[in-house]
């Protein structure tokens, strides 16, 4: 029982800290215990260690660790990708041989598909160009999305790539490239998630979640059959057994069938993480935003709460400067507002400011339209069919920002 208990503890601890690392920095969890633990691990503990290292070694250890951390976190390398592939393949090698003989022919075919699909999606999301912006395709990328004049304004340059930033793009410090519609850089695929591969990344999450769910269900079925051979009255629900007896039975069978038991526990504990991450990205699609943009919206919420955000109308027939903005885009709507921040809490002043009418103070995100939110199904179509050209909507407006909990 000791071995399987240790395996369960290790899996649980890794799963928990993976959850904190992934979700702790999200705006919605910023003021929760998860956010506090994320700051403790990534900010306060390293700061304390640097202080003590400065006292003990004059900072030499910190300097060495910073160089290693810089290489691991700021340079593109396949270490985590290789670990992910090994985790999948080793788990399958441990699990499938003892499970294979209990599967029917049709279930073996299903199992082969379930096991294979994550590798296909992993290759597609890792090997595909996520949307690198070059001088050759810059004009094409500029025509994908219009500027919303809220979180993306025309005329801004990427100082590293020395190109105009298209709407919804961002420079990735790890890939050292500007990416179209950058969501985030994912260390598990050693690639950015952007305009060209976000669909494959979502399919990777879905197929991996299906794989772990299927393995957990099959694993518990195999273990239950093994228990029934020894205890004929046994049922998975444990009817007729006390909690203590039920736990002891599972401890025994997990100890006897360590390979199946360890992989089953791993799948049981990681499945919620995978579907949680998938659910979060589906929420972002519903809201018409990305991980990168949600952080920008969170910054805007702070400015609005402080009373430093203002908006006014943007004429639909305004003149566009072709040197910094595409005259026409594939997107069916154009921004009807411009939102600016000030440093003194007073409305923007001066000549040459874009827009017409009086400046209105904005207090909450619900009062600002999200240009990139066309509704869930069109947002989803934009992800899974990136070459789709939307029909222009005459006089149409986008939904108000669907971002909540910021």
Question: Quick gist of this model?
Answer:
With 406 residues, the chain is mostly helical. The protein has 11 helices and 9 strands. The protein has 3 domains: 68 residues, no CATH class; 155 residues, no CATH class; 142 residues, no CATH class.
Describe the structure.
It is a single chain. The protein has 406 residues and is mainly alpha-helical. The protein folds into three domains: 8-75, no CATH class; 78-127 and 183-287, no CATH class; 138-162 and 290-406, no CATH class. 52% of the residues lie in helices and 8% in strands. It is built from eleven helices and nine strands. The chain has helices spanning 2-23, 33-57, 60-74, 79-100, 105-127, 138-142, 198-230, 243-256, 258-287, 291-305, 376-384; strands spanning 157-158, 163-164, 170-172, 177-179, 184-186, 191-193, 309-313, 337-341, 356-361. The strands form four sheets. It has a three-stranded antiparallel β-sheet with strand order 8-7-9. A two-stranded antiparallel ribbon has the order 1-2. A two-stranded antiparallel sheet has the order 3-4. A hairpin with a 4-residue loop joins β3 (170-172) and β4. α7 (198-230) runs antiparallel to α9. The longest helix is centred in the middle third of the chain and has 33 residues, at 198-230. The two termini are 45 Å apart.
Radius of gyration: 26 Å
Low-confidence stretches: none
Q: How much helicity do the residues have?
A: 40-55%
Task: Report how far the terminal alpha carbons are from each other.
Answer: 45 Å
Q: Note the run of SSEs as H and E.
A: HHHHHHEEEEEEHHHHEEEH
Strand order of the largest sheet: 8-7-9
Anisotropy-based shape = globular
When the domains are counted, the total is 3
* Main beta-sheet annotation: 3 strands, antiparallel
Strand content is 5-15%
SS-based structural class?
mainly alpha
Per DSSP, the total helix count is 11
Tally of DSSP β-strands: 9
Q: What do the pLDDT scores average to?
A: 86
């Amino acid at each position: 029982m000791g071995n399987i208990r240790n395996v369960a503890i290790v899996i649980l601890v890794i799963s928990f800290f993976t959850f904190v690392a992934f979700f702790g920095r999200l705006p919605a969890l910023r003021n929760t215990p998860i956010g506090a633990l994320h700051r403790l691990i990534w900010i306060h503990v390293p700061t304390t260690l640097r202080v003590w290292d400065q006292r003990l070694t004059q900072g030499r250890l910190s300097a060495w660790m910073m160089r290693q951390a810089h290489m691991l976190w700021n340079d593109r390398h396949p270490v985590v990708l290789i670990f992910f592939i090994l985790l999948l393949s080793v788990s399958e090698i441990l699990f499938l041989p003892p499970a294979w003989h209990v599967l029917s022919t049709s279930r073996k075919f299903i199992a082969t598909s379930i096991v294979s699909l994550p590798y296909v999606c992993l290759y597609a999301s890792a090997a595909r160009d996520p949307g690198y912006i070059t001088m050759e395709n810059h004009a094409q990328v500029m025509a994908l999305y219009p500027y919303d004049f809220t979180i993306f304004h025309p005329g801004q340059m990427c100082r590293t790539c020395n190109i105009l930033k298209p709407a919804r793009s961002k420079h990735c410090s790890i890939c050292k490239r500007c990416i179209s519609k950058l969501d985030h850089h994912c260390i598990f695929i050693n690639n950015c998630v952007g305009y060209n591969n976000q669909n494959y990344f979502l399919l990777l999450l879905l197929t991996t979640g299906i794989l772990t769910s299927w393995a957990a269900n099959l694993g518990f079925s195999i273990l239950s059959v093994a228990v029934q051979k020894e205890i004929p009255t046994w049922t998975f629900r444990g009817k007729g057994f006390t909690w203590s007896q039920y736990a002891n039975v599972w401890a025994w069978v997990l100890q006897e069938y360590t390979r199946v038991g360890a992989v089953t526990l791993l799948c049981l504990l990681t499945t919620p993480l995978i579907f949680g991450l998938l659910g979060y990205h589906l929420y972002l699609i519903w809201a018409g935003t990305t991980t990168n943009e949600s952080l920008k919206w969170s910054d805007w919420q702070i400015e609005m709460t402080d009373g430093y955000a203002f908006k006014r109308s943007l004429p639909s027939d305004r003149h566009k400067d072709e040197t910094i903005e595409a005259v026409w885009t594939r997107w069916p709507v154009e921004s009807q507002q411009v939102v600016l921040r000030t440093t003194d809490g007073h409305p923007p002043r001066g000549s040459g400011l874009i827009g017409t009418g009086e400046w209105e103070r904005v207090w909450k995100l619900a009062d600002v339209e999200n240009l990139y939110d066309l509704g869930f199904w069109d947002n989803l179509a934009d992800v899974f069919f990136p070459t789709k050209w939307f029909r222009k909507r005459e006089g149409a407006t986008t939904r108000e920002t669907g971002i909540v909990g910021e």
